[in-house]
Design goal:
This protein has 305 residues and is an alpha+beta fold. The protein contains 13 helices and seven strands. A hairpin with a 3-residue loop joins strand 1 (36-39) and strand 2. The chain binds flavin-adenine dinucleotide (FAD).
Length: 305
Amino acid sequence: MPLTPEQQAEIEALRSAPRETFRATAPGLEAELYKAHPVLDHGFVRVIDYMGDDAAIVQAARVSYGAGTKAARDDAGLIRYLMRHWHSTPFEMCEIKLHVKLPVFVARQWIRHRTANVNEYSARYSILDREFYIPAPEHLAAQSSVNNQGRGAKLEGEEAARVLEILKSDAARAYDHYREMLGQEGQQGLARELARMNLPANIYTQWYWKTDLHNLFHFLRLRADAHAQYEIRAYAETICRLAAAWVPHAHAAFEDYRMGGVTLSARALDCVRRMLRGEEVTQESSGMSKGEWREFRETINATKR
Ligand SMILES: Cc1cc2nc3c(=O)[nH]c(=O)nc-3n(C[C@H](O)[C@H](O)[C@H](O)COP(=O)(O)OP(=O)(O)OC[C@H]3O[C@@H](n4cnc5c(N)ncnc54)[C@H](O)[C@@H]3O)c2cc1C
């Protein structure tokens, strides 16, 4: 179960006692506030708090007071302009605070995003729960032969069953030893800060993670991308849906310019221009390396990410 009964009770209490405010609220995100959105087998993402909405971005860009009388279409247009021209500070006026439960190996990738505020569950102070990420069979895959940082074909049959069994039994044995080292009746027991050190990286941790919308989009651009590891992508995709509910215009501009758009090098742009003039451009005449040419071909052949 992703949530403890105490966490569930806290969510119900918070959602049954709405508070009035003069601050801007985003109705789409209000509907999601505090709720746990399941990710992987035991994880979740919850929105704990947020500040600002689409209008806050527009307001900062216009350095004005209030939304004024501009039509919604104008606001959407201005947000698209800001996104297109990398005028990023207005997006920093919006903030979001998430409660995330995630496997430690996912947390190690996530924590590389330094432009956020983080407070993590302390395994020096508390005992970790017996919860481990075990991939669903469709996500158990072999090492990719073309991408050193990726996975390839799905593991099948006996091999898949054996791998799952190893993952489960290693996690169970490590956790049993963890509890044993913490001590039994009449023993001193090893300190929690030491006993945790042989736990596997698929054990779950939790943290509060707060960031602004500009840096959130940067995180999502990298981690909701098809090249990101599936496990962190599952979290990023959930957060993308929450961002769409929170700042629909900004999210739509992000989808269009960042997730759906590409950056072309001067060399690649020159190739596009030559192709548009009817010239047959090859890898040799493009001036690009084989890998760069392959990526360029994939891009202009409009392969969906
Ligand atoms: C597909 C993929 C594969 C990866 N593989 C590896 C890997 O093999 N090994 C590895 O170690 N990492 C790897 N990473 C992590 C990657 O190198 C970045 O650390 C991570 O994506 C965070 O990006 P960021 O630094 O832009 O984000 P943030 O830390 O949020 O920073 C945002 C921006 O702020 C600026 N900034 C923040 N801090 C500093 C600083 N101290 N100095 C200068 N500018 C700063 C930079 O402009 C930065 O882009 C990988 C990431 C991805 C998405």
